[in-house]
Amino acid sequence: MGLFKWFFVLLAFHLFTAAPAASSNPEELAQITLDFLNLAKEPELVDYMVNIRRRIHEYPELAFEEFETSKLIRTELDRLGIPYKHPVAITGVVGYVGTGRPPFVALRADMDALAIQEGREWEHKSKVPGKMHACGHDAHVAMLLGAAKILQEHCHDLQGTVVLVFQPAEEGGGGAKHIVDAGVLENVDAIFGIHVSPLYPIGTVASRSGPTLAGSGFFEAVISGKGGHAAIPQNTIDPVVAASNVIVSLQHLVSREADPLDSQVVTVAKFEGGGAFNAIPDSVTIGGTFRAFSKESLERLKKRIEEVITKQASVQRCTATVNFNPDKKTFYPVTVNNEDLHKHFLDVAADMLGSQNIIEKPLSMGAEDFAFYAEVIPGYFFSLGMKNSTLGSLASGHSPDYRLNEDVLPYGAALHVSLATRYLQNYRPESKSSYKISHDEL
Ligand SMILES: *[C@@H]1O[C@H](CO)[C@@H](O)[C@H](O)[C@H]1NC(C)=O
Ligand SMILES: [Zn+2]
Ligand SMILES: [Zn+2]
């Protein structure tokens, strides 16, 4: 290569890497971020989000059955003039705001409810018996539609495209995996996800860098013997005693085989067998979940759970089969927050809420299917506080008494908007290629 060519290569390299971190100065950025919160707190937008949230709350739909919720989302996107893809993963909707060109940054909301009967009487109580939004996914949809409205109003300022991901089946169905498999994240550079939390005060956020939520798996085992009269055990093969020994043996996987410094859980939560006081049943079904913070630990637990169940059952002359996808529940990987996105999040949250309102979230053995996104592209998942002591304490997620503090909605919408717009603004092509290089090297 001639000297002349080298000069251009070096010049190009210099221009690429020496570009300023952002076109706006820090005070301007902070002001824009605060402005987004004020916009989200405008009564008209709050009413819009509250209304959507209540409509979804009244008609909760379970995993992969979010047909009406999906229709509601599409109607709103149509009204806003936002193009979208549908169906993605059965009920999923993926909207696009901005230039339609790279860079692409995604924001995620989950749509599904739980098979729980709402316990509390109130004006917008679930109208579907046995189904309830008890995890706040109704609020997640409302916040992302609120964000969509703000983003669309500012679409000419966007320096790229915001991808709005409304996904099905977070609660055990692994909807995120289906979204990934549908190719929605191809060319997407980063993804953010919010979960409302009754643990943290309203106006605060909680998160951490690196592994943040455990990976999880589920198991169900049928332990079979031979039923008979409870007073003549010698003519039976008792699966109740065998299952009891299996459960005790499973407790040793964490206490005796795992590194005490590597957090893991094995819980048997389900035990079904027999019905009479004087009859030994033919079989017993047990089921539960296992959690860990690394792929290796999860795989080891899975292998050992199967071994312990089948071999321990055989000690009592029973046979056992183990199913790791009971009720269509799927394996969830560990949720890992990208380090660069953590820095980005800290900047945005400090400008919007003040750094004193950012909480370092402790590790949790809970799991989230957001992990599937963060496995394939840089991802970032955080908790958004909604506790307000003057309103009384809030029940935990998945409780029949779960209550959403609707004051949380503008915070979620504003954080979505700010995280995405500032991500696009700060985007540097070389940061993406460095992700690629490090991925290839690993
Ligand atoms: C907490 O609730 C009270 C009563 O509704 C309200 O006046 C106050 O603004 C709320 N606090 C926050 C931070 O939203
Ligand atoms: Zn949940
Ligand atoms: Zn949830």
UniProtKB/TrEMBL annotation:
Give the record's family classification.
Belongs to the peptidase M20 family.
Gene3D superfamilies named in the record: 3.30.70.360, Zn peptidases
Tell me which residues make up the Peptidase M20 dimerisation domain. Answer: 215-313
Binding site residues for Mn(2+): C135, H137, E171, H195, H398
What CDD domains does this protein map onto?
A: M20_IAA_Hyd
Cleavable signal peptide? 1-23
Q: Name one GO biological process term.
A: auxin metabolic process
Its needed co-factors are: Mn(2+)
Task: Please list the coiled coil stretches.
Answer: none
UniProt lists the gene as: ILL1
Q: List the GO terms this entry assigns under cellular component, sorted alphabetically.
A: endoplasmic reticulum
Please name the Pfam families in this protein's record.
Answer: M20_dimer (PF07687), Peptidase_M20 (PF01546)
Q: Which UniProt keywords apply?
A: Hydrolase, Manganese, Metal-binding, Signal
> Protein name, please?
IAA-amino acid hydrolase ILR1-like 1
